[in-house]
Design a protein that fits this description.
This protein has 183 residues and is mainly beta. Helix content is 10%, strand content 40%. The protein is built from three helices and 13 strands, in the order ββββαβββββββββαα. Strands 1-2-10-7-12-5 form a six-stranded antiparallel sheet, with no helix packed on it. Strands 9-8-11-6-13 form a five-stranded antiparallel sheet, with no helix packed on it. The longest helix has 9 residues. The chain is globular.
């Protein structure tokens, strides 16, 4: 497994395993505590695993947590997703940068997203399963959502949106979220 820094987002990493393929399919290690530790992250900090299943065109996000934030490892375990990270840490040299990735079940690459960054994705295949490993328990009172189509972010979503949650449809702009955050 190889760990690569994400230049556009300070503290973000892409972990790329080496799948071993044969006539049966493939096998690969999707998490390696030693590799995670080698880039300065605590592998024991991740306390909760979750999974979402989406159909082609679904957008989930942009989501982040208020307070101390939430760091996460994100992987598309089946299918393919267009994945987006937005750095919203005001003290970060990559503040407001946007980074996009294609994560897929074929590669099993995992993206580490630091606390204070917003995250979202769009399913590119008929079915896309996205796995999350999160560093603190979920508290719905800390949920923050930003409009996926905010013109300031200009995220190049590759497909027309087929579905999203009501919360995501009604999300405020980045400017509104930042204004509220400053209060």
């Amino acid at each position: 497994m190889k760990a690569t820094e994400v230049p556009a987002i300070l503290g973000a990493y892409l972990f790329e395993p080496t799948p071993y393929a044969d006539e049966r399919g493939f096998f690969c290690r999707t998490f390696d505590a030693d590799v995670v530790r080698s880039v300065g992250l605590d592998p024991d900090a991740f306390i909760q695993d979750s999974l979402s299943r989406s159909v082609r065109g679904v957008v989930r996000g942009l989501h982040l947590r208020s307070g101390a934030g939430e760091a996460k490892l994100v992987r598309c375990s089946y299918g393919k997703v267009f994945d987006v990270v937005v750095d919203l840490r005001q003290d970060s040299p990559t503040y407001r940068n946007v980074a996009v990735f294609e994560l897929s079940g074929d590669t099993q690459a995992t993206l580490y997203i630091p606390a204070g960054c917003a995250h979202g994705f769009q399913a590119l295949t008929g079915t896309a399963d996205t796995s999350y490993r999160i560093d603190r328990p979920h508290d719905p009172a800390e949920d923050v959502t930003i409009a996926f189509d905010d013109p300031e972010l200009a995220i190049p979503w590759p497909l027309p949106v087929t579905s999203m949650s009501q919360r995501d449809r009604e999300a405020p702009s980045l400017a509104e979220v930042l204004k509220h955050k400053e209060k």
